[in-house]
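Holo prediction. Input below; ligand is NAP.
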Amino acid sequence: MGRILITGASGNVGRYVAQYSLENGQEITAAGTHTDTLAEMFGDRAEIVYFDFTNPKPSLAKKYWIEVRGLEKEYCTVMSILYLMTRLGTAEKVTSVFEEIMGKKPRSFQEFVRKNAASWK
Ligand SMILES: NC(=O)c1ccc[n+]([C@@H]2O[C@H](COP(=O)([O-])OP(=O)(O)OC[C@H]3O[C@@H](n4cnc5c(N)ncnc54)[C@H](OP(=O)(O)O)[C@@H]3O)[C@@H](O)[C@H]2O)c1
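Structure of the complex:
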């Protein structure tokens, strides 16, 4: 049984779909524009992703990298394309390359959101 994406997972309808899915052993990705709310609701039980159907571009992550982290725009463009590919599901597995180059384990998007939620408020 693969993971399912539930958009509007914090809403009146979505929260029950998410709860029912979890209770039945289904892995879920909970999506919405308020990832902090989703994190409060689901904690570790769901993967949480930012998704705004009015703005499908990964521009928010790019804005964070440029404005908060102070990284170079070109670097952020490459990272945002990698991020988009990952979100589209074209990155099928985690390799050891990141750890070999950076000397640390890669973080999941969920961990990234938890750590940086305050940056987007
Ligand atoms: N409730 C009913 O009885 C009922 C009956 C028939 C049909 N419907 C339809 O079912 C849908 C959900 O209803 P609901 O009552 O659950 O609504 P709701 O409580 O208002 O929840 C809406 C959900 O959509 C998310 N959302 C809002 N704007 C978004 C955006 N730009 N990008 C991504 N996610 C966004 C919200 O999460 P964030 O705040 O995190 O973005 C929230 O989780 C609606 O289309 C509604 O018309 C509802």
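The pocket of NAP is lined by residues 7-14, 32-34, 37, 51-54 (CB under 6 Å). That is the main takeaway for now.
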